[in-house]
Every structure is written in C-alpha cells, then in structure tokens.
C-alpha cells in the first residue's frame, strides 16, 4: 500500500481475533468487532433519520483498491477527521484470499450466497459466505423497518472496461428501481448500470432480496495488488461514501433517463465442460460490442452467437470451473 494500513486493516490481515471487541474512537464513536472481518461503527448519538449502511470489500481478495478506500475512511473516522452520523457495518469479505493476494482460494465467493454455500461445503469460501450472510442479517435485523437500508459491495474487475465504473442493480422481483439511488450512483461517477434480470447468488442480491436493502455491486476499475492502485481514480466513490456516512451529501439532481447507459442481462455464458471455448481476445474489455452473427463461444454442441448488433460482453472469464458463468451477454435497456 502507498500508505500504511490503518489498525483496522492491520487487524484483518493479521489473521488473529481482535484482542478487544470494542474500540473507543474519537468523537464518541464506538467500533465493535463481531469477528476478525466484521466491524460495526456506532455514532455517539443516533441521527434522527439514521441510515443503516453496509460496506463490503475484499469479496475477491485481489481487488484491493476498494479495501484501501474503505480503510482510509475507517482511519479518518477513528481520528475524528470524518464525522460519523449513521450506523455502519464494514465487512472484509474474504480475508484468507486478501492475505494471499488471490481472487479466491477454492471457489468464487460471490457465487455462494443465498444458501448456495451449502452445495460446496468443502470449500473455504463456503464458510465465509455463511458467515457474511449471518453478519448482514444481524446488522439489518437491528434496523427499524422504515429506516433506509443500504449495501454497497465494492469491487474492481479482472479486466478493463469500456465503462470503467459501473454498477450492477440486483433483480428486484416486484420492487421498483429507486430513482434516488440512481441519482446517487451518478454522483459517485458511475458511468453505466446493469439491471439484472433474474436472481443471482451474489452478496448484493442476497441483501436486496432477503433484507430489502438498496443494494448494488459497484465495479470501480481494474484489480491491482496492494500498493499499485491510483486512488485518485476512486475519488468519486470515496467522496460520495464519506458524504453518506457523515450526512453531508448535497442535494442531488433527480435521475433522468439518459444520465448514463442502462443495460439488461440477456443471458449467461455457462461453461459446461473443459471443452468450452471463448472466441474473444484474452484482454477483451467489459462492455465490448459484439457484431451481429459473431460466434461468441461454444461448448460441445452448445453455441453462443451474437444477434442484433447491440449485444455486449461482460465479465468474460473462460477459466472458471465447469458449471459456472463464463460471461454475461447484455443489451441496452430502459426503465
């Protein structure tokens, strides 16, 4: 890291249980450790319209920039430089993988929520997923039914992107997309939003569906090791989160169609076997347009062919295990 990690991140990376559950910080803030990866921050006085904000990072252990952004916020809350006005839970998702600088150790953690971890009991990530579900459930259980519940799951991507910063809005079933959240995403510097069209086993879908949170997966750039992140590229999300926890977000212009492109997931590229072949360059960027008729991938008799000329590829990764998603085909959408 370019600057030493705060004592919060040092604690996570040390692989030891906190010596004290409660840390008393500046301005009367209480930091309460629930485990070696989960710290809850409680303001000295509850805000009358208090939000309940879950920030998760390190779900993929090699995605270090969001960890650094959150860690610097924690350091400034601890020193009193960042006033805390709302209840916050910070979850460092996969500390084992973070310590080794790996995306995951046995299985992609962000495919194991909503109980999917029960299907992979032999993986280390299964235990992490179960624990993260429990930690989120406990946190939101103590939020009044009418209080705003927010979850921002912070990531960086394996590869570059036509839209460097984009959000994934989980499938909402019968709930409506929230215009205030869409406006806040623009305030963060988000350049595109993917509206998911079906349930998923991701952390943001879990909190959205099971705890009625306004939840998003935020992809904020490219994954790099600790110490190699240009944090100036994350200034938008850093400022927006700091304003959020300190209750200083300015009045935002209402969301308008056209503020940024919207996409909808059309279908997943599923890798059924080791015969799977993806016919795209290894360094292809997220949201690369696919010409009409282009053979995207094939797996035995299964062929994936682009149609219409408006489709794009997202998260192409032919190296996943058989049975997992090797990419998403998306298309333009409207609300």
Keywords summarizing the entry:
335 residues; alpha/beta; Aminopeptidase; OB fold (Dihydrolipoamide Acetyltransferase, E2P); 2 domains; 13-stranded mixed sheet; three-stranded antiparallel sheet; 16 strands; globular
Write the topology of this structure.
Blueprint: H1 7-13, E1 22-24, E2 30-35, E3 38-42, E4 52-57, H2 64-79, E5 87-92, H3 95-100, H4 124-141, E6 149-157, E7 166-169, H5 179-188, E8 192-195, H6 203-211, E9 214-222, H7 235-245, E10 262-270, E11 277-278, E12 288-289, E13 295-299, E14 302-305, E15 312-314, E16 325-332
Parallel strand pairs: 4-5, 4-6, 6-9, 7-8, 8-10
Antiparallel strand pairs: 1-2, 2-3, 3-5, 7-9, 10-16, 11-13, 12-15, 13-14, 15-16
Q: What kind of sheet is the major sheet?
A: 13 strands, mixed
Unreliably modeled segments: none
Residues in helix, %? 10-25%
N- to C-terminal separation?
40 Å
* Cα Rg: 20 Å
Instruction: Examine the secondary-structure arrangement and name the CATH architecture of the largest domain.
Output: 3-Layer(aba) Sandwich
Number of strands: 16
Strand order within the widest sheet?
A: 1-2-3-5-4-6-9-7-8-10-16-15-12
* SSE order, one letter for each helix or strand: HEEEEHEHHEEHEHEHEEEEEEE
CATH class of the largest domain: Alpha Beta
The rough form would be described as globular
- Structural class, please? alpha/beta
In the CATH hierarchy, what is the superfamily of the largest domain? Zn peptidases
Number of individual domains: 2
């Amino acid at each position: 890291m370019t600057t030493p990690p705060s004592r919060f991140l040092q604690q996570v990376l040390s692989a030891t249980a906190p010596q004290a559950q409660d840390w008393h910080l500046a301005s009367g803030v209480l930091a309460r450790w629930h485990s070696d990866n989960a710290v809850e921050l409680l303001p000295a006085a509850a805000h009358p319209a208090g939000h309940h904000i879950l920030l998760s990072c390190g779900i993929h252990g090699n995605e270090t920039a969001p960890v650094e952004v959150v860690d610097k916020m924690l350091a400034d809350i601890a020193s009193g430089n960042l006033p805390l006005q709302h209840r916050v839970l910070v979850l460092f998702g996969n500390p084992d993988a973070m310590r080794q600088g790996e995306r995951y150790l046995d299985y992609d953690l962000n495919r194991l929520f909503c109980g999917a971890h029960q299907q992979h009991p032999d993986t280390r990530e299964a235990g992490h997923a179960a624990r993260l579900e429990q930690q989120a459930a406990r946190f939101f259980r103590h939020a009044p039914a009418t209080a705003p519940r927010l979850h921002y799951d912070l990531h960086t991507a394996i590869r570059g992107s036509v839209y460097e910063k984009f959000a994934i809005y989980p499938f909402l079933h019968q709930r409506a997309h929230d215009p205030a959240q869409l406006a806040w995403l623009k305030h963060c510097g988000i350049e595109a939003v993917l509206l998911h069209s079906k349930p998923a086993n991701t952390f943001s879908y879990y909190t959205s569906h099971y705890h009625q949170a306004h939840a998003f997966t935020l992809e904020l750039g490219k994954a790099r090791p600790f110490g190699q992140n240009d944090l100036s590229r994350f200034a938008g999300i850093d400022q927006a989160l700091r304003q959020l926890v300190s209750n200083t977000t300015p009045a935002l212009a209402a969301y308008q169609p056209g503020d940024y492109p919207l996409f909808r997931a059309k279908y997943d590229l599923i890798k059924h076997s080791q015969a799977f072949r993806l016919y795209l360059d290894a360094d292809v960027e997220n949201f690369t347009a696919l010409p009409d008729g282009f053979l995207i991938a094939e797996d035995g008799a299964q062929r994936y062919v682009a149609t219409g000329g408006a489709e794009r590829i997202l998260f192409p990764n032919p190296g996943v295990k058989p049975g997992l998603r090797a990419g998403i085909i998306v298309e333009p959408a409207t609300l």
